[in-house]
Amino acid sequence: MSPIMLELLVRSLWETLVMTAASGLISLVFGLPIGLALVATARGGIAENLAVNRALGAVINGFRSVPFIILLVALIPVTRVIVGTSIGTWAAIVPLAIAATPYYARIAEVSLREVERGLIEAVRAMGGNRWTIIREVLIPEAMPGIVAGFTVTLVTLIGASAMAGAIGAGGLGDLAIRYGYQRFETAVMIAVVAVLIVLVCGIQWLGDRLVARLDHRN
Amino acid sequence: MNRHVSWTPAETTADSGDVIRLADVRRRFGETAALDGVSLGVRRGEILGIIGRSGAGKSTLIRCLNGLERPDGGSIEIEGREITGLGEAALQPLRRRIGMIFQHFNLLSAKTVEENVALPLKIEGWPKAKRLARAAELLELVGLSDKARAYPSALSGGQKQRVGIARALAASPALLLSDEATSALDPETTRSILALLKDINSKLGLTILLITHEMEVVRNIADRVAVIDAGRIVEQGPVWQVFATPKAETTKSLLSGIRPQLPAHIAQTLLSEGPGDVVLSIDIAGPAATGPLFQDLSKAFPGGYRLIHGGVDHIQKQPVGRFFIALPAASTAGLVSFVERLGAQVEVLGHVADHA
Ligand SMILES: Nc1ncnc2c1ncn2[C@@H]1O[C@H](COP(=O)(O)OP(=O)(O)OP(=O)(O)O)[C@@H](O)[C@H]1O
Ligand SMILES: [Mg+2]
């Protein structure tokens, strides 16, 4: 592989990392509270409100049912307002984050829902309020699942960011399509796949290790 | 174990002796009346055992006391204050004065033992150093100082319950609620947990409400017992009295495993009439049971009687005796009036089949 290709590879890797990290972080920051809201407003939750719960669920399902490639295009006006441009790596972060947030909210919801009711009850019996329950019980007890779910989201985002090439976002996926697929440069294709494998394995490994450290159940 | 635990149970208002007063408390779940008009008082400093079969309404009852469950009707006074109308926010300060221990411990897995014990104090807003110092004090009380930094998953069931007790006591509550605290533990661990509770009760004067379905637990540590069945209190009184002379069917059947029973092979062959010897049970307890019963009997009935089964138990330092004897039918009436004069209860059970 030529030095130019190598440079291209490094730049694409960086673009993928930026897109994944930024949209992953945004989905964490917004998805976790949404997941909490889903669990809290559900039947028997700490702030039961079935109307809010159903409305929130419907919005999430709506976003989740739109194929990403369509979301990518449909969100162009929104992206232009937020980032100032509708093309490039930073522009791709908007649709990626908007797709990943409801996805992560659902994953967080599942982990939070699995927290034993008895633990919530114990803290209520101590005189704790809702915030105490969220801070001392729900989040810490669900932490292994919250982290494991974040790992899954990041890996999914790496895959999704490949499509962001469609709006000129660059990244490894884009490189693979333009050089490896359209120009038959097999070496580039192989290199990209190898880098992606290492990236995915690395993230998964880090995530698993973190989960193992956080998990004190049994 | 160290016993020097500081204890400043919060101020108590006009002390009528009852920490808890329930009047006609009702709670339905759909068709089932979990509580069907419960009236009950719990006295300051006592251990009250509440016993009943599965589904009798025990958990519902105890959960009403700290507002985890809301009754449909009736009144619940804690330290003279009506709590049934209180909202969640008003219940929170009240709950801080009531400790609760659970059958399944309910320790937070993501927190260390000391963090678990210190959590009620964190909720009360204590600074970190102070609450950890208090947690250390309580862990010493329950004999788990060496586990302060461990996570609950590394503890045995009995150790977890000790942590649960330490946590329930952290905020110096005026009242401790225990819902089947020993049901998940083996007999030996159960004994040590009960001994700990008894100890806390006598050293710290803490009122304890203890729910169980095991008579053994009540027998070991309670001062008074209330029997609940189908959402109603069917019997209550000092433990030794209820054990000596149970009145309700539920009580008798709950007691059957722990009091002497007529051996099955004899019970099965008893006849309602006949020439055979009469079999009867004698229940004698308290001061009445301190006299030389059998010596008196032998003197009064030289015709003889046979002791079939029975013995004397000691509950709350009171002798509680239950005997099954057989004697010739002719002597029966005399013996019954004789022992009843001593303050015993006699029940004629039948006649033995073969005239031995
Ligand atoms: N949340 C609930 N929803 C519906 N029914 C309930 C609920 N809680 C309790 N019940 C019913 O109320 C009755 C009393 O239940 P409760 O849990 O108080 O019994 P318990 O005496 O504690 O029994 P156990 O010894 O099995 O714990 C039972 O018939 C139970 O099915
Ligand atoms: Mg129960």
Automatic annotation (TrEMBL), chain A:
GO terms for biological process: D-methionine transmembrane transport. Residues 13-205 form the ABC transmembrane type-1 domain. The chain crosses the membrane at residues 20-43, 55-76, 82-105, 145-167, 187-207. InterPro entries: AA_ABC_Transporter_Permease, MetI-like, MetI-like_sf. It holds the Pfam family BPD_transp_1. It is a multi-pass membrane protein. It is found in: Cell membrane. The keyword Membrane applies. GO terms for cellular component: plasma membrane. Keywords: Cell membrane, Membrane, Transmembrane, Transmembrane helix, Transport. Belongs to the binding-protein-dependent transport system permease family. CysTW subfamily. This is ABC transporter permease. It comes from Ensifer oleiphilus. The lineage of its organism: Bacteria, Pseudomonadati, Pseudomonadota, Alphaproteobacteria, Hyphomicrobiales.
Automatic annotation (TrEMBL), chain B:
Residues 20-255 form the ABC transporter domain. One of its GO terms (biological process) is amino acid transport. It holds the Pfam family ABC_tran. Keywords: Amino-acid transport, ATP-binding, Cell membrane, Membrane, Nucleotide-binding, Translocase, Transport. It comes from the Bacteria. This is Cell division ATP-binding protein FtsE. Part of the ABC transporter FtsEX involved in cellular division. Important for assembly or stability of the septal ring. GO terms for cellular component: plasma membrane. Belongs to the ABC transporter superfamily. One of its GO terms (molecular function) is ATP binding. It comes from Ensifer oleiphilus. The keyword Cell inner membrane does not apply.
